[in-house]
Amino acid sequence: MNVDIHQSWKHYLKPEFEKPYFKNLVEFVKSEYRNHSCYPKGSEIFNAFNHCTFDDVKVVIIGQDPYHGIGQANGLCFSVNDGIPHPPSLINIFKEIEQDLGIAYPKSGNLIPWADQGVLLLNATLTVRAHQAGSHQKKGWEQFTDTVIELISQEKQNVVFLLWGGFAKKKKKLINTALHSILESGHPSPLSANRGYWFGNKHFSKTNSLLQRVGESVIDWKLE
């Protein structure tokens, strides 16, 4: 696995790449990709960082694991490649955007246009073995992505963090709430959404209001 990450991130994360845990993680990921089908494809592992440079980060959305079905994952949390059916959580994200902003439900579930505007779509674990959810957890990815969250918290200001569900909410302790905004809700998964913990959170319009308040350009959540 080459750490094929945008220079703006490399500048800050280079010390992390030298640490023993990260070197062990690289060896583990290389072995997994050599011996098993894994996702996303190797060139897309750091896609979230390559489409959203450090300087551009305005919004952070935290996911847990890449999708583990064939052709789904593309390195951005909740996002799928063009032409892939939308997973249940993504369907509910788009339904909320439809209700919140009146934006028509999109054909593609590829969220790269959000990333290109400064939305860091960060999974806590960046790789997974095919059809085995959570198979690459607790191998070092979480330590790396926690460092990324802390880095953004320390080095930037006025970033909007969207914490959806119990797992993401645990990351709150890594964020300086005096410098950044946090919006929390239930997870968009059907289990949570159908219990009333997701729909109506208006996180997309609220995010844009928070960005406007600090003089930042808003995110165009429309994908077509």
From TrEMBL:
Protein name, entry field:
Uracil-DNA glycosylase
Q: Which family does it belong to?
A: Belongs to the uracil-DNA glycosylase (UDG) superfamily. UNG family.
Q: Which gene encodes it?
A: ung
Per the UniProt entry, what species is this protein from, by scientific name? Winogradskyella ouciana
Q: What does this gene product do?
A: Excises uracil residues from the DNA which can arise as a result of misincorporation of dUMP residues by DNA polymerase or due to deamination of cytosine.
> Keywords for this entry?
Cytoplasm, DNA damage, DNA repair, Glycosidase, Hydrolase
EC number(s): the record gives: 3.2.2.27
Q: Where in the cell is it found?
A: Cytoplasm
Keyword Transmembrane belongs to the record: no
**Record-linked CDD domains:** UDG-F1-like
Q: What is the lineage of its organism?
A: Bacteria, Pseudomonadati, Bacteroidota, Flavobacteriia, Flavobacteriales
GO terms for MF: uracil DNA N-glycosylase activity
What single Pfam family name could you report for this chain, choosing any that match? UDG
